[in-house]
Structure formats: C-alpha cells, structure tokens
Design a protein that fits this description.
The chain has about 280 residues and is of the alpha/beta class. It contains eleven helices and eight strands. The strands form two sheets. It has a six-stranded mixed β-sheet with strand order 4-5-3-1-2-8, with helices on both faces. A two-stranded antiparallel sheet has the order 6-7. It binds zinc ion.
Length: about 280
Amino acid sequence: MEYKLFLNNYKCKIIFYIRHWKNLINIAEEHIGVNRCPSVVKKKKFLLIILLLISNCTTVGFHDNKLRKSMDFGEEQTLNVCVFYEDSIGKSEVVELEKDWAEELALYKIKLQFKNIKKVERFAFFGTDVLDQLRRYKLGTECDRIVYMFGRTWGDIAYEIVTLGIFFGVGVKLEIHGAVESYTNTRGFVKSKYAALLQLLFTSPSSTLVHEGYHLMGCPHMLWKDECYKIILDAKKKNRKNTRDDKIFNVRSTGDRQEYYSSEQVNYFWGSDTEFIGDNKK
Ligand SMILES: [Zn+2]
C-alpha cells in the first residue's frame, strides 16, 4: 500500500516537474546564479537540479521570502521537542541538528528546544514500525512533538546498497529518509546519519529534519510555502489564545485538518500511556 503510494507520488512528481520546468529554471538561477554560467555548464547544472528535485521524493515547498517577510508572526513562541536518538549518533550531532532546525523555525519567531533527549537502542528496522511504537509515548508540557533519530548500522548500509542498486537499475528509490504521521502531525522519524555514501547526493540529515519539521508544524507537501506560512501563523494565533494547562503547540492533521491543541487530546487519540523520560534536561 505504502509502496504503491510512493510510486504514484513519484510519477506525479515527474509530471509536475516537467510541467513546471520553467519555474524551476528561474528558481535555480536565483539560488545558485546559473544565469552567470556558460550555456554548457548551465545545462549540466540544470540537469543536476532536476535530478536532485526528483530524487528528493517530495517537497514542502520553496520559500517566498518576500511574502514571508511581509507577514507578522508576532512574538516568539517555544516549540518543545522530545527526541529519541540511537546510540550510533553522538550528542554533538543531535545538537547540530537542533541548531539547523532552530534556524529555520526562527524565520517564524519560533524558538526550538530539544527539551528532553533520550539515547535508545533501535526500536525497529523500518521507519513505519518505529512510528508505530512512537504512538505509545505521551505528549506533555515538555513534549509538543516527538522525533526519533535513526543512526546507522551495518544492516542499514546493506539495505542502502540494495535500494541504490534498484534506483540506478529501474529509477525508483525505495529508501525513505524520514516521515511524520499525518493523523496528528505530532511525531516522526528522521535518518540522521548517512554521511559518506551516495545518500548525500540526494539529501542530508539536516534537510530531512527541516523537511519533517514542516510536517510537524502541520504543513503538507506543496510547491511554494505560502500556505504553510498561513498554517504556522494560524497555529501561533491559536497558541496565544490557548489557556489550558496541558496545551501543546497547536497543530493540525494533514487530511481532515483536525486541530490538536492539548496533550490530553493527542494522547487520547493515540492511546498513549508511556511518559517520555529524557536522559537529561536542558
Ligand atoms: Zn514530506
């Protein structure tokens, strides 16, 4: 089912990119200055960009800086995140990722805090099984969201080689670098360590986290972030009015846009019964 969905997504994206190739060239020119390159280099760079975009599976949208800067996101609000990280990831790497995501959220005057972090042994091999286990963990005053960071084992390396083989063989990339459940958009996982292999051609742990971070704010996949800006602005407005003791940073689900504003509500939805107890508190 998921595989099917992924394939459909993939086809849609290719059609989408073909339709919008002119826009993509403009974006490329703006971001890396391809217009200043000789035409042969320009062509090559353009192909590289297309390859990167297609292989990146899906996008949460390009920034519209002018629009975002014209919006007033109000006062700074805090997003508390509880993080599970696997033992092959160093704490400094967790801090580094936190910094990258924090930089992105600062655009919306949101202060990111990895409030509780906990080192764990791998929950399960596949991300979907990890997501399933994350349901057990309760949100609370210190956890508006829960993120699970995958490390890297020999088993992963073997799996990566197989999936890359399939990618070059039939052009379908099976590996998923991160995901957020779309029912409440309150928990997800990211692969946080795959340096030195071909994965870096497609993405990086930091860009995966930033991407999933947008889902954790309630943003779906889109070409431009304009709708996402409105979703974040709206969430902040609702936070401001929320006076509940068990309030969480407001978020909405992807499909039916159900609003979630309290830990009680989310914990009831998932039947969560386990406290997140971090190794240390900041
Ligand atoms: Zn996504």
